[in-house]
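Onboarding guide, step 5: your first structure request.
Type a short instruction followed by the sequence, for example:

Predict the 3D structure of this protein.
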Amino acid sequence: MGLNHVPGAPIPTVAGPVADTRKPRLALPPGSCDTHAHVFGPESRYPYDPNRRYTPPDALLSDYLKMLRTLGVERAVLVQPSGYMTDNSRLVDALREQTAFPLRGIAVVNNSVTDAELRAMHEAGVRGLRVNLRVSNGASADMAPQLARRIAPLGWHLQVRVDPKDFASARSLIEALPVDVVIDHIGGVPVRDGLDGPDFRMLLDLVASGRCWVKLSAPMRMSEEALPYRDVTPFVHKLVLAAPDRMLWATDWPHTGVGGTMPNDGDLCDLLTDWIPDPATRQRILVDNPARLYGF
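The system replies with structure tokens like these:
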């Protein structure tokens, strides 16, 4: 049934992560941060939204932290998954429960959220809001300007999942916001269009604006090859060269909805050897940038 499935719970429709994480060959610098992961369950305590697109197996905080310690990661950012829509209970409880491992969070809300609720989330460790422009997760694009104005005094940012074909229309939205914006998963640009493709050029323009960060994560979601996803590497190199102070790294654990062979997180970590070969730049992207953005 999948990782941590409990009899009687909803049957998972997506696979869980590889449980036996391989220790990477690459030694990460102290303070390295995984800036994008989700935790699920136990479902008996944190039931999924009835309007969810998928049903994951439980992917518990304890499993996640075990994986991070194997990689040598010492900080992490939990992102509210669409399976919970705007019920941030699992996320906030994880932030409050885990005191031995530095965590931050990215929540999902709609315009009904109160200022008191936002302040309470801030005290728990939330540092931004997620707006998914690709699928419904409870926060639509038209809410972004108002939400951005409300979170600006907290020093938060907006994290967006956007279809690359919509970068052009999203650009005017992003440039008008009073907060920084983080784009998931290398923008998900189509690799077949190459580095000169219109979607990737628009992503570079967004980064050049100084208002946009990019998560170097989930190469399997855009690659047309198997691991080590070599067709993605030139895009990472170009982004790192363009704005090393605006790049972040993430595992995207537990890799919900990834088809085919589920990657081992140790293998994903070792991609950094080719992605960011310079140790000083790795230090900036894995440690310094997330410390600045998330307030570690």
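Each response can be followed by summary notes, for example: The chain has a mean pLDDT of 92.
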